């Protein structure tokens, strides 16, 4: 049983405050986890409260329901208590940031009590042996960097990598090569919130550079390294059209544009090609290029099983991004993963632009056999997850 929960404000990778939770059990188990935070958040996400408010509300409503009554090892029970304590549909009472920090910390405490690694506790004895391919942000802009590309993320996708370590190093090599190509072109580039280069170039030039870098690295490592995108199109959408600086694309033009990009660059992955309520547009795009690429809903689905259900019925997309803090608990995130997998949608486990050293998503990806994880390429809060995957691979495969 849980004997105590403590909550504090800690720093995230942007220097903003976020919620960290410690969970202690009567038998001496301990777990600690911190909530990440988005910048290009979807309008249908669970509510992130200012950390001070989230902590005060969780102390008042959630902690008394957990302490002395709930078993840390019973994740469904922990997460049901969190939902009961909150009482709303979107965690607006205690904050999804408090909820997800407690949910993840309890999972770690449960694993500690069992003496098992977290991926084993979450995945169970009959867990499969799939290991996720990391998608690594190498060029980015949008809401993650000012005066850079309009498309939010260009993601290296080392789909042919024989191991997660080789995949992570291939992504790092693409990142480095992109940096060299930018220097050759005399383009100075700082890094955005997720560690990707944030050069002041147009999207067309970014496609050229990333394609070239992936080709060079693929030749070097001897396996397929391709790339994908997070277009974060809700951030480009002005209510009528998709706005790329001066260039404007109607919804129909946006669909043509994305379909052409998929063909021209053989993109492995396109996230949020359309704004967060356009299920019909997603369905049309899926009809056109869904057999050739992953069309992933992030802001569209927000890790919400009901919204995913609508996507499944309409064949809107073929993939879902999974961010536990979008929905508030690990149980709800796993529900979305299981619904996706049962219906042929590919789950992609994901970090947020504001991150911490927390590695729960690496364990979640291995536990659920998710084929992909999107967790950046460089920067300590990103490599924390990648290095954890490298360690897990030593004993899990
Ligand atoms: P966010 O961006 O964490 O700022 O929402 C990541 C994404 O859009 O995938
Ligand atoms: Zn996204």
TrEMBL record:
Keyword Magnesium: yes
The Enolase N-terminal domain, residue ranges: 2-122
Chain sites annotated for binding substrate: 144, 153, 271, 298, 350-353, 374
Active-site residue numbers: 194, 323
Binding positions for (2R)-2-phosphoglycerate per the UniProt entry: 152, 323, 352-353, 374
Pathway recorded for this protein: Carbohydrate degradation; glycolysis; pyruvate from D-glyceraldehyde 3-phosphate: step 4/5
Name of this chain's protein: Enolase
Species this protein is from: Halolamina pelagica
Originating gene: eno
């Amino acid at each position: 049983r849980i004997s105590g929960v403590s909550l504090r404000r800690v720093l995230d990778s942007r220097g903003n405050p976020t919620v960290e939770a410690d969970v202690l059990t009567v038998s001496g188990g301990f777990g600690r986890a911190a909530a990440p935070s988005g910048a290009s958040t979807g309008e249908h996400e669970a509510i992130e409260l200012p950390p001070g408010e989230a902590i005060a509300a969780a102390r008042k409503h959630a902690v008394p329901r957990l302490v002395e009554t709930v078993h840390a090892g019973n994740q469904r029970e922990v997460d049901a208590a969190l939902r009961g304590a909150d009482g709303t549909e979107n965690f607006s009472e205690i904050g999804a940031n408090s909820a997800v920090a407690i949910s993840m910390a309890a999972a770690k405490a449960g694993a500690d009590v069992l003496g098992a690694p977290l991926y084993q506790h979450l995945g169970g004895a009959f867990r499969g042996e799939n290991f996720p391919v990391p998608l690594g942000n190498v060029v980015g802009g949008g809401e993650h960097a000012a005066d850079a590309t309009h498309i939010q993320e260009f993601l290296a996708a080392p789909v042919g990598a024989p191991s997660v370590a080789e995949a992570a190093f291939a992504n790092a090599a693409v990142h480095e090569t992109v940096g060299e190509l930018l220097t050759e072109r005399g383009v100075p580039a700082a890094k955005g919130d997720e560690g990707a280069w944030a050069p002041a170039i147009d999207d067309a030039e970014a496609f050229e550079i990333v394609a070239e870098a992936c080709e060079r690295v693929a030749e070097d490592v001897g396996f397929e390294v391709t790339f994908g995108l997070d277009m974060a199109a809700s951030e480009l959408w002005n209510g009528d059209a998709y706005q790329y600086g001066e260039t404007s694309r109607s919804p129909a033009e946006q669909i043509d544009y994305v379909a052409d990009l998929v063909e021209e660059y053989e993109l492995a992955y396109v996230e949020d090609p359309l704004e967060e309520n356009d299920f019909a547009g997603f369905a049309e795009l899926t009809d056109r290029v869904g057999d050739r690429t992953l069309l992933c809903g992030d802001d569209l689905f927000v890790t919400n099983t009901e919204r995913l259900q609508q996507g499944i019925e309409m064949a809107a997309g073929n993939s879902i991004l999974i961010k536990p803090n979008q929905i508030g608990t690990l149980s709800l995130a796993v529900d979305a993963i299981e619904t996706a997998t049962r219906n042929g949608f590919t789950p992609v486990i994901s970090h947020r632009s504001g991150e911490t050293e927390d590695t729960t998503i690496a364990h979640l990806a291995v536990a659920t056999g998710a084929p992909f994880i999107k967790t950046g390429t460089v920067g300590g809060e990103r490599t924390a997850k990648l290095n954890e995957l490298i360690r897990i691979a030593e004993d899990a495969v």
